[in-house]
Amino acid sequence: MKNTGRKKKFSFSKIYSFKRGKGQSSSSSKDEQSQIGGPGFSRIVVCNKGAGEEEENGSSVGYYAKNYVRTTKYTGATFLPKSLFEQFRRVANFFFLVTGVLSFTALAPYSAVSAIVPLVFVIGATMVKEGIEDWRRKQQDIEVNNRKVKVHEGSGKFSQTEWKNLKVGNIVKVEKDEFFPADLILLSSSYENAVCYVETMNLDGETNLKLKQALEVTSSLNEEDLKDFRATIKCEDPNANLYSFVGTMEFEEQQHPLSPQQLLLRDSKLRNTDHIYGAVIFTGHDTKVIQNSTEPPSKRSKIEKKMDKIVYLLFGVLFLMAFVGSVYFGVVTKNDSGRRWYLRPDDANVFFDPKRATFAAVFHFLTALLLYSYLIPISLYVSIEIVKVLQSIFINQDVNMYYEETDKPARTRTSNLNEELGQVDTILSDKTGTLTCNSMEFIKCSIAGIAYGYGVTEVEKTMAKRKGSPYNSSQIRSTIKGFNFDDERIMNGNWVNGPRSDVVEKFFRLLAICHTAIPDIDENTGKVTYEAESPDEAAFVIAAKEFGFEFFKRTQTSVHVNELCPVIGESVKRSYKLLNIIEFNSSRKRMSVIVRDEEGNLLLLCKGADSVMFERLAENGREYENETREHVNEYADAGLRTLILAYRKLGEQEYNLFEEKFLEAKNSVSVDRGAHIDEVTEEIEKDLILLGATAVEDKLQQGVPECIDKLAQAGIKIWVLTGDKMETAINIGYACSLLRQGMKQITITLDKPEIAALEKTGDNDVIAKASKQSVVRQITEGKNQVDDLNSEALALIIDGKSLAYALDEDVKKLFLELAIGCASVICCRSSPKQKALVTRLVKEGTKKITLAIGDGANDVGMLQEADIGIGISGVEGMQAVMSSDIAIAQFRFLERLLLICYFFYKNVTFGFTVFLYEAAASFSGQPAYNDWFLSLYNVFFTSLPVIAMGVFDQDVSATYCLKFPLLYQEGMQNVLFSWRRIIGWMLNGVCSAVIIFFLCVKTLSPQGFNKQGKIAEYQILGATMYTCVVWVVNCQMALAISYFTLIQHVFIWGGVAAWYLFLLAYGAMPPKISTTGYKVFVETLAPTPFFYLVTVFVVVSALVPYFAYKAVQMRFFPMYHGMIQWIRYEGKIEDPGYCEIVRQRSIRPTTVGLTARSLARTSPLKDNKNQRSR
Asked: Per the record, where are the segments of Basic residues compositional bias (predicted)?
């Protein structure tokens, strides 16, 4: 293969995870390939097939999905029917569709056009919004599908083509920093040994580069070789598993096993590699990333669901009003003895015929439904949608949620759940990368039983403060990223003269060799930096470098290190032949490399978790075990992540036997190949000799304790779900104030002698039964403690093994009862599935809003299960998301809940004036208002102020929200959107309607309306009443607003002005169009002073009841936000006594956080009581 495009500084391209095996003959064991060709493993791909060649093995490129990807909800053909179906699924819209159809009949009390236009406007506006959103998705699809990639067209030549034209079996050339257009099998790359580096941030949020390597048989392919390249790939069918792949490649009559090591996934990016050649195996919607991108579960907020119930209530009121009026109308019509002579009952149609009174009543019922339909707010849903979208825009542009370091603002991917943020009851958080930075620093170590490192961790500082003891705050921080170690005993080569220098040397050498990091040498300065698959790996290699063991070069078969020689005191270059790398995984919890040193010794170097390493030590390798265990526990107490380092020498015969079994396991193509490999590695990773332990710190993100304190004061419960060990999680809990001194801890664990004794027997059934009984007993005991100490703050800590049994169907209810009785819950050693199950348990068990926040692929299940999921894409976005958590208290939830109540108020006010007028008109079906007055009320004259309020109003400023987080409890406890409050607003609407109607009727009748002596006919009465309604509902809005902006002034008073302008314009139209509105304002209302007097009198009278109620409530029975408004108004923000009175009104006491810790210090008697209870 040509060596073009290689860079000198990337001489590290020669790394591999397992020694590559030779290809198997086609007659190899059928057992190993039993999965291929069976259910789920039936895909056959013919690579580089020419245009004229026949399909082989029955495969057909046309059978497989095209590479065109569509993420839109609609197509050109389906937009209209699907969108209309979505709109008329809403019961209110369907109701207005029915009334619109009925408006074309003789039953309608108004013209059909006036009924249809508002409906068309509302439905059209929502459809346009959905169309625009879908068009944006369409544009993204077009951009992706039209990206260019080089595809092999034959004879070793490549030409540019669009992604959407790729087919299964094509050979493509992907160049540096390009995305992979489909799922590919890596054939070769620009580096020798066919290695490439891939960034998978778009798939799993991880920024660390992943190493991929082609099969040895294809590693030398170049453009010239590709013209004759033919191969058949048989593999698994399309599935969503990103981390597994089973297949074989038949090439040159030999079968070669394929693994995830050769799989390049669509939407991942080629990095640090000039180019690669790959064969397309999955395209379009068959690719793994698209298989994973299923539509998220449809989430509707509880507010929206409750809004539907209120609309149903209004429907009930509407039908009741129509029924009562129709019964009355039927009775009066049947008994009509000439009192209603003007209806001419002797010559009436069916609508007023006394002889057909029953039919008249039925027809009147339908007419009444049409007439009172304005009781239902037709613009409610579209207005709420507009408010949500505008709020999302403001959230995205909030500078307080902008993270300057990475230039990342907050992003709301859906606006449907905005109001849910104001009602969160429980937050379930990952720890690493969410509460902490996921930026590791090497800070301490234990070597040969001696502890090194004087650094002070954030947890230790917090613990020192908690105990009242001083700590060294003048520590000088290292300027080297990943290294914050301070101990002169082993720094600067001093370890050479220290105790057990031979063990120290082996310890540092292991750090420099046992890893998969990649060195990057700057050609100008010669400085070495590292690309590692995890922050821990990078910290270890950097630490080894600082201690005198600089890893500077890697090839396919060797690792090169500049080592400080203890004999001559100078750095010497040493190389180690790299035989095998046995990678870390979540089940093994360790990583090993097998190398041969320059003296010919075979060495197995291993590092891993203490839970698996100590049990693998040889009898003669436990010399420092007790001291190391003690140090590891101390490091865990300090919130550090620890690993045990050990090694052993291997014999040639032992290694050859391992190599044979290892290759056999690796070359198998069954789905349990990983289990076979683990079985083989178990046999050699034993009888180890202990060297020591490392300790790295994953720092708390800035502001985490303050954030948790504010959330705790807001009454929000916080659960931490982490994979870390119990001691580390507990101390992180202390550092971020989830735990505090004096708080009783309920610990549920299976790390008990009786369980350990059973585990040695190996009887899984007995172990499982005893473990479950132990967990149930511990949960029951904890529940009893909660019941006995119900006034005290308790913390629940449970490990992953116990959690597995606590989530059983017959135990989980008891576990939840215990957990919700505790102030803090920490689940340690949790698997991704357990995180999701715990989230589901909390959501379904408490029936309250849950919010999950996490930063990695292992948190996806948790995020999808929660009512609200906040995802963090890689390290860069963490700080911004932490800010958004803090900013939850700033979300203007109060106003959003209030505006929904206002919608029903204004519609009840308007609808009841129509009802009262019809009652006064003997339920004759005569509307009080002109047709277009009715139609434009909801859509034009009263809707914009509501939108402005929902977007711009704030009862309390953001500053006061953060100072008094208990304000959040109003939303969480549903204080502002309770049925009592909703019914109260409706009754307020009825009260306003009664005042408006009767005052207008009594003041305008029967005396003369103007100086000509003309009386107020129903046209004048209707226009006057309508004017009063518009004024009242807009002034009601002004009274409800706490924070006026120019836009709100424009919308409120502009709505009133728009009514007068409409009267002028509409009245100027011909009588055939304007009907009862013809010049009613210019000729009748405007010249008459009495009209203005009536308007002022009626509006003031209608607003007095609400104003009086609010004045009494605000002064004598203030709600939380009302009390805080008084603090602001009276300037008592700095009065600690008054502020404390406000805090004592909290619905839920604050039991965790800095504030609770401070209060605990001021209440020593309570702390003593807690300690005695322990």
From this structure: 1-22
Strand-pair category, 157-162 with 148-154: antiparallel
What is the pLDDT confidence band of residue 449, given thresholds at 50, 70 and 90? very high
Peptide bond into 945 cis (omega under 30): no
Residues noted as catalytic: 430
d(CA 164, CA 180): 13
Helix, strand or coil, per DSSP, at residue 187:
strand
- Host H or E run for residue 171: strand 171-175
Higher pLDDT, 989 or 649: 649
Q: CA 351, 357, 362, 364 torsion: positive or negative?
A: positive
The answer to whether the beta carbons of residues 527 and 516 sit under 8 Å apart is no
648 labeled part of a ligand binding site: no
Does the annotation place 353 within a ligand binding site?
A: no
| 828-850 mean pLDDT | 83
Given a cut of 50, is residue 1070 above it in pLDDT? yes
Residues 183-196 have pLDDT tens digits of 999 999 987 667 88
What distances in angstroms separate CA 516 from CA 219, 552, 591, 666, one per listed residue? 20, 13, 10, 19
Identify whether residues 575 and 714 lie together within a single domain.
Answer: no
Residues 573 and 617 sit within 8 Å (Cβ to Cβ): no
The CA distance from 888 to 962, in Å, is 10
pLDDT band at 255 (very low <50, low <70, confident <90, very high): confident
Q: 643 with 787, same domain? A: no
Over residues 652-702, the pLDDT tens digits come to 999 999 998 888 887 665 556 667 788 888 889 999 999 999 998 877 766
In this model, does residue 424 exceed pLDDT 60?
yes
Instruction: For residue 316, give the nearest of 369, 364, 367 by alpha carbon.
Output: 369
Least confident of 27-41, 206-220, 1036-1050: 27-41
Query: Does 723 carry a binding-site annotation?
Result: yes
> Quick one: 882 and 1011 in the same domain?
no
Structure tokens at 401: 């949620």
Phi-psi region of 812 (alpha: psi -120 to 50; beta: other; left: phi over 0): alpha
Residue with tokens 């009984």: 773
Instruction: Report the domain count for the chain.
Output: 4
Query: Is-contact 179 251, C-beta < 8 A?
Result: no
Burial 342-373 (b: 16+ CB within 10 A, else e): ebebeebeebbbbebbeebbebbbbbbbbbbb
Is the pLDDT at 165 greater than 80, yes or no?
Answer: yes
Which structural domain, as residue segments, surrounds residue 204?
166-292
Q: Quick one: 909 and 829 in the same domain?
A: no
2 is annotated as contributing to ligand binding:
no
